[in-house]
């Protein structure tokens, strides 16, 4: 609203100055017309520079507003990921049970236990794949700047570390079996970065 009002004021002032210059030009003799022409050209130059400055200020305000909106969207997206995780927490009972089972085991024993449990329990396998896919999606959002990494990192660091520690061997095995070396690569990348 303020910008629109400023445009109207500038427009009316410009029209008034132009009308005044035309009026002076019409009443002037030849020598005076050269001076009025020079004054009009100078005024036009000053108006052009002022317009360019005004456009620059408007563009900067627009960019600042867009940056603020992007930051707000990233924060909102971050909160949405946290809410999705919390909404599904009660559904991950099997995964939490497996995590408890392997919590204090060596890496080799953990790998064997996870592999055996995942082969024996199809529902567990589906639950783990779903959870890892969610974490991969969240990791991609971090990498693409669609979320506020500070918020995500504060909430998800321990979760990412636990899931990667528990399922690292199983993920590697799936990459080999599926000939998909980039499977869960974004998750692996943020795990490395946050570790």
What is the helix content? over 70%
Structural class by helix and strand composition? mainly alpha
Q: What integer is the average pLDDT?
A: 82
Query: Segments where pLDDT lies below 50 for 5+ residues?
Result: none
Compute the CA-based radius of gyration: 32 Å
Largest sheet, in brief, is: none
Q: How would you characterize the overall build of this protein?
A:
The protein is mainly alpha-helical. The protein is built from 7 helices and no strands. The chain has helices at 2-27, 30-88, 93-102, 107-120, 122-143, 149-177, 185-194. Helix 1 (2-27) packs antiparallel against helix 2 (30-88) and helix 4 crosses helix 6. The protein is rod-shaped and about 105 Å long. The two termini are 50 Å apart. The mean pLDDT is 82.
Q: Which short descriptors sum up this protein?
A:
rod-shaped; mainly alpha; 195 residues
Brief overview:
The protein is mostly helical. The chain is built from 7 helices and no strands.
How are the SSEs placed, and which strands pair?
Elements: H1 2-27, H2 30-88, H3 93-102, H4 107-120, H5 122-143, H6 149-177, H7 185-194
Helix pairs in contact: 1-2, 2-6, 4-6, 5-6, 5-7, 6-7
